[in-house]
Amino acid sequence: MSVFDKLLKVMLAAVPILVAGVALAKDAKDITVAVIPKVAVPFFDDCNTGAANAAKAAGVQYQWVSPQNTQGSTQVKIVEDLIAKHVDGIAISVNEPKSVEGVIKQAMAAGIKVLTFDSDSANSGRSMYIGTINAAAGATMGHSMAKAIGGKGKVAIVTGQLGASNLNERIAGIKKALAAHPAISIVTTEGTDDDLAKAVSVSEALLRGHPDLAGVFGVSQVGGPAMAKVLATKEFGERKGKLKVFAFDDLPDTLRGVKEGFIQGIMVQRPVTMGRLAVEHLVAQIQGTETAPKDVDTGVTVVDAKNLGNYTK
Amino acid sequence: MPESVWSRILGLRKAREVNVLLALLIVGTAIGLATPYFLTTSNLMGVARAFSLTAIMSIGMVMVIITGGIDLSVGSVMGLSSLVTALCFSAGVSTGLSIAGGLLVGLVFGGVNGLLVTWVGLPPFITTLGTLSIGRGLMYVITRGIPQTPDTPPAFAVIGQGYVAFVPIPVVILIVMTAIFTVVMKMTRFGRHVYAVGGNESAARLSGVRTSRVKFIVYALSGLIASLAGVIAFSRYLSAEPASGFGAELDVIAAAAIGGASLAGGVGSVLGAVIGAALTGVISNGVVLMNINTYAQQAITGAVILIAVSMDVMRSRRKRV
After folding, report:
1. Touching check for A52 and chain B: CB below 8 Å?
2. Which of B12, B14, B37, B236 is deepest in the core (most CB within 10 A)?
3. Separation CA A116–CA A135 (nearest Å)
4. What angle do CA A6, A11, A15 make, to 5 degrees?
5. By percentage, how much of chain B surpasses pLDDT 90?
6. How far from the centroid of its chain's Cα atoms is residue A197's Cα?
7. Which domain holds residue B18?
8. Per the domain annotation, does B1 fall within a domain?
């Protein structure tokens, strides 16, 4: 019998022991959950805060593993490492949906509970997705706009990359909400590649071409700052406040735009809530109290001049 | 002549590999003592598969470095090869031809690098910096930022995801490549010429070595090997994303340097580079297993690299005195 055969036998013999170990109910202190963000940016710092607090409250071990870059392969490697470590649960915000499918299936097969948050890998077999349902967030944005412009007038959409699926879902949500207001018409949808300089020139052209515009949707994160900059210029200054602007994501420039009256509202996602729910659901699944998990929409908070200082994420 | 063969493989030249192997064993033992999850067959094989792409590319890189050159284009070539393989599959081309398409990318880029360095006489750094940008740029032009995920036959996925017994196939490929190129570098005339070009190019030319041809071949090989890594990567992830291989050249150069290669040329070995890649792979695995602050990972890797290389340099200096 060769060495390899022996090794193989030992490994096979270990399988039932491992399976038996997983099957037993665990004390909270013996449970380890790991959370993997896309990359180190402020949004995920907030997720980490929510997740770490939830882990503390539940009394479970917690590990935050931030990839060094946004390549799909880096997250695959991290999940493999966590499988080797025999963690009990993994929550991941996916950089590239296809490339992690195999490793998530592998983790699930090893008895690890896996869910996705913020960014999904729908075909990976993960137990659930927790995050912003973009179509619903777009609908909220559409309703806010309809209210602000009194249910009538011309509006325009400023987006990021034209092909981006999350942005297109938001736009679809806006259109659905505005369908209830026949007096509102969408005159154009402009792409900006999420480049601020390009977004500024697109916004200028938009305002020149449509002097009677009542509202602008900034559905990607550059829309808000770009409109605020344009409305601060002499040429368009008199339309400040008359032209209603709704934006996405609470970047510092966007918040300042609200404070100074250039922007009427921001759709702010809830990363702290995502992190908290991710850990809570993982722990529930590991302890067997949640057996039929369903996707959770964490929704958006509409931030305007009134709640600017004290909104929660 | 088994004696002379063995003395070449295990002889004094290998002292530098012994140093980095020592560093690998020390780091491995430390991680193994700190966490029970490290020294398991499945973890070690997973780690080996994770660093195998860097290690495979470092084989081509170390040959370029030994000639006194550098190949900054390997990360781009790897990514572009993944992408071209994916595009071939999208176009309905057979598995064999899709793989050939991916490998052709590497051969073309490597060949262009080689021609620019030898025929035009550009510095290797500038040459490969240029082809790095061209390769990456082409990826963005082709994908417009969207990952390519064509349907592939199950047999293709075996290359990146399959096993021989309990050893992942990328690791098997790495072992075979390491063996082949160790023999090439230590026991063939071509290998001796590669060292000669890097040691003293004029002297090599005067003693009859066709230095341009040697240099052209190492760049072409480096490109071809990088594209092999690209094909394996696509088979492993079944997704060719525009960022694939981004920055990989630094990891690959680091592996070669950790393994004792001198960026001044003339010194280095295939085995050393592969062990160098293993060292960084083991560190990044250990950081996750031991729950060390993940933001500190790069800093830790950098510190370990400096310590390992310093040990190496000080040991060889003592020997010379």
Report:
1. no
2. B236
3. 18
4. 145
5. 70
6. 25
7. 14-316
8. no
Superfamily of domain A134-269: Response regulator (3.40.50.2300)
pLDDT averaged over every residue in chain B: 90
> Nearest Cα to A32, choosing from A65, A67, A77?
A65
Distance CA B186, CA B180 (A): 10
Nearest to A72 among B42, B144, B239 (CB): B239
Q: CB B233 to CB A73 under 8 A?
A: yes
B301 domain-assigned:
yes
Judge: B288–A81 Cβ closer than 8 Å, yes or no.
yes
Which of A188, A179, A187, A176 is CA-nearest to residue A153?
Answer: A187
Hey, what are B121's tokens?
Answer: 């006489």
Q: What is the pLDDT of residues A154-183, one digit of tens each?
A: 999 999 887 777 888 999 999 999 999 999
ipTM > 0.85 for the complex: no
Question: How many A/B residue pairs have CB atoms within 8 Å?
Answer: 86
**pLDDT-wise least confident of A77-86, A173-182, B291-300:** B291-300
Q: What are phi and psi of B52, to 5 degrees?
A: -60, -35
Number of domains within chain B: 1
Tell me the per-residue pLDDT of B104-124, one tens digit each, with 9 for 90 and over.
Answer: 999 999 999 999 999 999 999
Distance of CA B232 to the CA centre of its chain: 13
Can you give the CATH number for the domain in which B258 is found? 1.10.3470
3-state helix, strand, coil in chain B (%, to 5): 80, 0, 20
C-alpha span between A293 and A281 (Å, rounded): 8
Domain A3-131+272-296: give its CATH superfamily.
Answer: Response regulator (3.40.50.2300)
Residue A248 phi, psi (nearest 5):
-120, 145
Instruction: Report the distance separating Cα A182 and Cα A153, nearest Å.
Output: 10
Confidence at residue B19, expressed as pLDDT on a 0 to 100 scale: 81
Q: Where does chain A hold its CATH 3.40.50.2300 domain(s)?
A: 3-131+272-296, 134-269
Question: How far is it, in rounded angstroms, from Cα B161 to Cα A106?
Answer: 12
Q: Using CB atoms, pick whichever of A63, A71, A81 lies closest to residue B243.
A: A71
Least Cα separation, residue B82 to chain A (angstroms) = 13
Question: Is residue B251 assigned to a domain?
Answer: yes
Taking the model in full, what pTM does it have? 0.78
Q: How many other CB atoms sit within 10 Å of the CB of residue A76?
A: 24
Give the integer Cα–Cα distance in Å for B302 and B103.
32
**Cα nearest neighbour of A62 on chain B:** B291
